[in-house]
Please model this.
Amino acid sequence: MKNLIKILLIIFVFVSTAAIAYAAVDSIPVTVGVSSVFQMDLSVWKGGVGADRYSLVPIASISFGSFNMGSFTGGAPNVMVDGNQGGLIVRAKTNNGNPWTIQVRDDQPLTRSGGSDTIPNSNFVFWGWKVAGEANGTINYTTAQAISTSNQVIYSSTTAEGDTGDTRIHMQFGVNVPASRYGTYTNNIIITMTE
Amino acid sequence: MSKNITFLAAIIFAMLVLTSSAFAISIGIQPRSLNPGTFAPGQWSGSFPINPNQYGEQGLVVAAASNMGVPWYFKMRITQPLTNTTYPNKTIANSNFHWWGWTVPSESAGNISNFNNGIDSNGQAYNYVDTTVRTIYIAAGRDMGVPGQFPAITKVHFQYGISVPDNARVGSYSTMLEFTVTE
Model:
């Protein structure tokens, strides 16, 4: 009986060792960096009837044209595509994970070239809107709002927009031309994206 | 009875030692880390590692030594998706982390198991890195070695690439790349 147990156990040992699965494991760390993005640009739709009519074209200035005293310039930039107004497109992008805002101001009232005559900021207005699928945050001025040399927040993003691709809002500007000396009036509009 | 138990325990120990010493399989990886750099959202990392390792070999080289005399396999996985070290809920999907491999006739006789998940703009077929263990190489011929003899060394080369998503949050993303050699 004892010998039988020995034999059985020895057989068990052989079977057990034969069933051992041999394996070896090694591992290494992998690290990749993603850089910070915090950017904004200004553009308008290309327009026309081509397939690329909604593509963006950078814009460096806004010209209203010439108007008589007491008239309203209408909204500018004025780019209609398929019955839709594009206006000035503010495209913003960040991956910092924080909510952000778009603010607008001018550096001075519209001022006549070669002179000191001005059109008050109360006559220089702006407004904004968003399009479904382009922005999910809040537009603060959807109707005409007098511009100021102090920043006014026109758009407040959602927190999620701190991680997404392009967010786009649309804006237009207009001038109620007051009784003023003839000439060309200019200033700079400053649009700021900030966390 | 107690003498018998001692005797049997000694036999079991001896058999395990003898069996283990008669067969060997081991694995090594060079280089010892992968750091392709920092990239903007939407950017492609390019292939990495791009420089030869300390032995002048191209790519990530995974080597196995075996005298098992039986077929064996390289398996690969990542322990987790590439994960933002500051914001652990932000990850880069495995489908954005690609691999491809190649062999050199003098270094191996088996075949790489491709999953052909896509082809990049350079015509390079790639596979997704996965948190599931995947068999990526099947040894054959010389790779298996001969029991009792010096183990055969097999090397397989790999490269990787990461397509950083457009919405990837700023930061450093990391994971562990794990290889297993098993019969």
